[in-house]
Write a structure and sequence with these properties.
3 helices; globular; 121 residues; alpha+beta; five-stranded antiparallel beta sheet; binds zinc ion; binds adenosine monophosphate
């Protein structure tokens, strides 16, 4: 999709710091990291969110998780632990509607799931 930021990264039109890739996935550093390690794993194919990936091809969803584990090992955070997150929809804060798995680690992470302020309130 021409107007999709992550499709443009896949195409090489927008630069990214790529840390891992497979035939069907790409991993690059988040431009605004929320933890010492913050990498995004995406399918090269445009699919809007994790559920769409699972519906299109469950193996591809597993490949994203496996790539996340490989990145965690390469970053040296597999033993200390890490968090895998798929934001889905507005309340989650999803801003890019091309599925992406956040890999967060390298520090003790705060608790999650606390309610915040809804958009527009
Ligand atoms: P989400 O809020 O779950 O949709 O996550 C989108 C993520 O993409 C955010 O954490 C952004 O910091 C990140 N992001 C936005 N633009 C870029 C970019 N050009 N390169 C790398 N990460 C980006
Ligand atoms: Zn896309």
């Amino acid at each position: 999709m021409a107007d999709c930021l992550f499709c443009r990264i896949v195409a090489g039109d927008i630069p990214a710091t790529v840390v891992h890739q497979t035939a069907r996935t790409l991993a690059f550093r988040d431009i605004s990291p929320g933890a010492p390690t913050h990498v995004l794993i995406i399918p090269r194919e445009h699919l809007t969110d994790a559920a769409a990936v699972a519906a299109a091809d469950p193996t591809l969803l597993a490949e994203l998780v496996t790539a996340g584990a490989s990145v965690a090992a390469a970053e040296g955070i597999d033993a200390s632990g890490y968090r895998l997150v798929f934001n889905t929809g507005p309340d989650s804060g999803q801003t890019v509607f091309h599925a992406h798995l956040h890999v967060l680690g390298g520090a003790q992470l705060g608790h999650f799931g606390q309610p915040g302020v809804r958009h527009g309130e």
